[in-house]
């Protein structure tokens, strides 16, 4: 709310907020590849990172005390594994680092920040490729997230979800769908979970603005996959249906290097 200098009448003025999300596949590694320069250049209002693979005590001060930002980390009990981070120009009203379920919270995959106009979930969803046990863990994590975020929405909150979901939703979301039908990341049960999640009242924001193919956020390090754009779109910004009117753009930055993922972004007006 601002006051018009001419007549003293209070009028509403919306604020633009730029959010970005990036699986950096090791924050210490990407830091050596110019991360800080990229961060300063982009200067988002909120930056969410996944797969930091570090606790704050393992990081240079430049990554734990950033001018103009409130910084939060959630690290895995296992060293050099998983981890998420949040850099926010506005101090959140509160920050949680779990669902309240030890087997999920201990892996450092969750930051939930509450702001005046929305709740933000920064999530690094598990990868299920290594074993049947990890696939089961991934599906259980999906269900725990589903319950938590839908309860948050039912409580009357608008919600933004971002992160590495580790699943391509539809054939358009990966370069080689037929070859990957039996690979975790494109299994029927994983894709069906995304169907269920969206059907419960959520929007894949990128597809609201971009319907073309060949738009990816992850490429395998081997076989020049990124150079050939043989990739997967597994990183997302979701919002609840009622918040969609605040979304002005959702985008991918495929030319940003440093990780096997690229950053994604969301522009909102509140």
What does this structure look like?
A 6-stranded mixed sheet has the order 5-6-4-3-16-15. Strands 7-8-9-10-14-11 form a 6-stranded mixed sheet. Helix content is 23%, strand content 27%. It has a single domain (16-269), classed as Deoxyribonuclease I, Chain A. The longest helix has 23 residues, at 132-154. Strand 8 and strand 9 (119-124) form a beta hairpin. The protein starts with a strand and ends with a strand. It is α+β, with helices and mostly antiparallel strands.
Top keywords for this entry?
270 residues; alpha+beta; Deoxyribonuclease I, Chain A; 16 strands; disordered N terminus
Strand order of the largest sheet: 5-6-4-3-16-15
- Count every helix, treating DSSP H or I runs of 4 or more residues as helices: 7
Kindly name the structural category. Answer: alpha+beta
Task: Calculate Rg over CA atoms.
Answer: 18 Å
């Amino acid at each position: 709310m601002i006051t018009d200098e001419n007549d003293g009448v209070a009028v509403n003025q919306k604020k633009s907020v730029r959010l970005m999300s990036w699986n950096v596949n090791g924050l210490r590694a990407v830091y050596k590849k110019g991360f800080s320069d990229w961060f300063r250049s982009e200067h988002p209002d909120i930056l969410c990172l996944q797969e930091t693979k570090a606790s704050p005590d393992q990081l240079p001060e430049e990554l734990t005390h950033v001018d103009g930002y409130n910084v939060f980390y959630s690290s895995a009990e296992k060293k050099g594994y998983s981890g998420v981070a949040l850099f926010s120009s506005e101090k959140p009203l509160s920050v949680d680092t779990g669902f309240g379920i030890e087997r999920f919270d201990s892996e450092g995959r969750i930051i939930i920040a509450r702001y005046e106009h929305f709740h933000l979930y920064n999530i690094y969803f598990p990868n299920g490729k290594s074993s049947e046990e990890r696939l089961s863990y991934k599906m259980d994590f999906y269900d725990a997230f589903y319950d938590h975020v839908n309860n948050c929405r039912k409580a009357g909150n608008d919600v933004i979800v971002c992160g590495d979901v580790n699943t391509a939703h539809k054939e358009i979301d990966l370069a080689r769908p037929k070859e990957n039908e039996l690979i975790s990341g494109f299994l029927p049960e994983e894709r069906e979970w995304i169907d269920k999640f969206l059907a419960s009242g959520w929007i894949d924001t990128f597809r609201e603005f971009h319907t073309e193919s060949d738009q990816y956020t992850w490429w395998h390090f081997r076989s020049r996959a990124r150079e050939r754009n043989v990739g997967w779109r597994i990183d997302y910004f979701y919002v609840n249906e009622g918040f969609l009117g605040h979304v002005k753009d959702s985008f991918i930055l495929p030319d940003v290097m440093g990780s096997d993922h690229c950053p994604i972004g969301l522009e909102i007006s509140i």
